[in-house]
Amino acid sequence: NNKNSPVFSTPQTSREAVNTAVQRVAGMLLRSDQLDKVEQYRRREARKKASVEARLKAAIQSQLDGVRTGLTQLHSALLDVKDIQSSLGDVSNDWRQSINTIESLKDVKDAVVQHSQLASAVENLKNIFSVPEIVSETQQLIEQADLLQAHRKLMELESSRDDLMYEQYRMDSRNTSDMNLISIYFEDVQGLSDELAKQLWMVLQRSMVTVRRDPTMLVSVVRIIEREEKIDRKMVDRKKQTGFIPPGRPKQWKDKMFQVLEGTVSTRIEGTQSVTREEDKMWLVRLLEITRKYVLDDLIVVKNLMVQCFPPHYDTFNRFFGLYHNAVSSRVKELASEELEANEIVSLLTWVLNTYTSAEMMGHPELSSECDINLLEPLLPQDVVGDLLSKYLKTVTSNITGWLRKALETDKKDWQRESEPEADQDGYYQTTLPAIVFQMFEQNLQVAAQINGEFREQVLKLCLKQMNSFLHRYKEEAVNYKEEHLRDRQLPPCYVHYMIAIINNCQTFKESISSLKRKYSPSSEQTDFDAAIERTLNEVAKEGCQFLLDEVFLDLENHLTELLTRKWLTGCHAVDTICVTVEDYFNDFNKIKKPFNQEMTSEALRRVVVEYIKAIMQKRITFKNAEERKEGAERMIKEADQFKFLFRKLSGEDTDRLCGAISAIAEVFKLTDPTLLFLEVTTLVSKYPDIREDHIQALLAVRGDASREMRQMIIGTLSENKVSYSASIQPIFKDITVPTNTMTTMTTMTSMATAKLLK
Question: Labelling 476: which of 246, 307, 369, 424 has CA 20 to 30 A away?
């Protein structure tokens, strides 16, 4: 037995098989009733054994059949290889024996070539003899514009020439003399080809006209070019095989056709300029409009007519679309390189960025179905557009600066007029300056908006920047106007009215700026110049109001000096005159717009009260007795009421606090019991905490009956118990100075020391 073969059992496997069988039998005979089925179990196991043996035999038989078939095929392949080897040996022997035979057939080969040449010559003999006649006929056909027939004749001539040259090349490619002889004989053929080509190019150059009048002519041209392309391909293929190509081939008329069409389109676009800048300031607008019309009309013709004259694989419409786009782009670049004026830059950029792709031109409904304008390259590179925009902004900046300067000069001349300024529909004085300035801004922004929104924002910022600079000059001129008036108050004759107009212009400027921003800037973001402009306008308006109040108080100066004097005490009419003068001025000041008129009225009241209190603090009078103090106090209370009535009438606002200061001081003067003076002064200080010690000193001095000890006690006590005041309360005494002298200073120091001692 072979122990290494898996087919035979080893002792170990036999034992394992016996053990397995024993276990299996034991499992079958666990119960006594199963002994009756021993025979049944034996037959079942016998069937299983027979089935397994049958499957093993079938598998082994199948493997043996496969091995037998493989051996048979290998044997057949070996026999075939031997046969092939024998045949190759026979072929090799035959080839060696036939070398001499092939050499002996050279004469036959030459005879065959000569026969082929002679056959070609015989075939073209008729054409060869009729070459002059065909040339003449072809020339006549070309002149008669019968291009298809002319091309057919030309093809016959070229075919005869090319066949003869090819046979000559095959027979003896180095024989140039015979080749030259053929070329000379057919020399007129090349001339006919060139002449026909000229006619074709002329038709293509007039293709836009031809396709409308005689589209068959254009179709004929395209057919001729297609024939030539086919012949070119045939000749190029033969050259790859034989090395021979006829003279003038390949003609490449198709490429030449597209070059002609490109040149025609370029000429069409370049020829749109009918006038120059010297002849017409609107030359560029006219040129761009003519270009738009030509391009749109031509492309519609291409779509509706010309496409039908060319083969579909030419993609005619898109090809023409690209030609026109490139031609327009080249023309626009030329225009952009010229020295354009500001309005011309805007016209060009508006046309390039908006009109070109709009429904009025390349985005026209008749064209949009054939192409996607979003795939077009920009007509102008972005850097060129940027340079043009920068140049425009520089020019606009210069223009706006000049226009603003000129507008301000014109407005200054109006300030000198003898007639009052015009009033708006609400009766407020104004000049034409805001309207001129913002009309100019509006025009520039409208122009910028034609280009795009981003550029519009840039121009708006430029306008605001220029406005900020302009307002500083405006402020300076308003100050100069006031100073000029102070040198001679009779001039200018309408100073007050035009100063009112200057103040009103500030409010108009604010409203106009807000209107411009709402209209031309969708974003509500604040620019760098908004706060500066607002601040400058407020300064101009407030200074203007101050100038007008200065004018009022210059007229009141003499009357203010009469207050709290002996003359005043005896019954002068200074306050009556002051009220009449103020009211008269404010009849004109009613022409000031809100909120400046309200602010001005409040400031006028404050200044009147301050001037009145200043008169008290200047100690122009010292009351001699209680009767004078009572009379003076009552007069002060009466005049305070006059001021209350006047300014409540002018402003409609509460005037009690400011006018109440005069009444409170009057109460100090009116007091008859000196022992209560400290309480009255304390009440005054509590109402007006910005009052100072020197003010109290002045009041007590005017009262005239306060002893030194009383003054020292009051001042000392108040200095030890100073009352703080809120910043929200408008101060009255803060800016009022009291004339000082050495004696007053010493008294103050003594009062301070005495107060400490008393404490």
Answer: 424
